[in-house]
Design brief:
The termini are far apart. The chain folds into two domains: about 35 residues; about 70 residues, Photosystem II 12 kDa extrinsic protein (DNA polymerase, domain 1), CATH 1.10.150. It has five helices and two strands. With about 120 residues, it is mostly helical. Keywords: Signal. This is Helix-hairpin-helix domain-containing protein.
């Protein structure tokens, strides 16, 4: 039993040392690309000015259905249109939890998207 635990710790130490070495080895190449203005990373996605102002959050009281569907995880255009229809019929949302009143929006779905939403 002691040998198994010791072997496990040795394996973990070697793996973490290898990962650190790989990360350090990749750093100069990344710095060179940045210095030369080259990057393999895609450009950041375009966001509306309101979303940028809220650091990536969108307003459930003013965003169009297309933007809600794009930003919210697990929400397609149909559910996003239901959100817009609900707010047009009942007025603006007073809290983010009011989103649970929209047909098709369960508690788990609302909780999953709280980081992306604002009033």
């Amino acid at each position: 039993m002691k040998h198994g635990i010791k072997a496990l710790f040795i394996t973990l130490a070697l793996m973490s040392a290898g990962m650190s070495h790989c990360a350090l080895a990749a750093t100069p190449a990344a710095k060179t690309q940045v210095a030369q203005g080259k990057s393999d990373a895609p450009p950041p996605p375009q966001q509306s000015k309101a979303a940028e102002a809220e650091k990536g959050r969108i307003s459930i009281n003013s965003a169009p259905a297309e933007e809600l569907a794009r930003v919210m995880n697990g929400v397609g255009l149909k559910k996003a249109q239901a959100i817009v229809s609900y707010r047009e019929e009942y007025g603006p949302f007073k809290t983010l939890d009011d989103l649970k009143q929209v047909p098709g929006m369960g508690g788990a779905l609302v909780e999953r998207n709280l980081a992306y939403l604002t009033l």
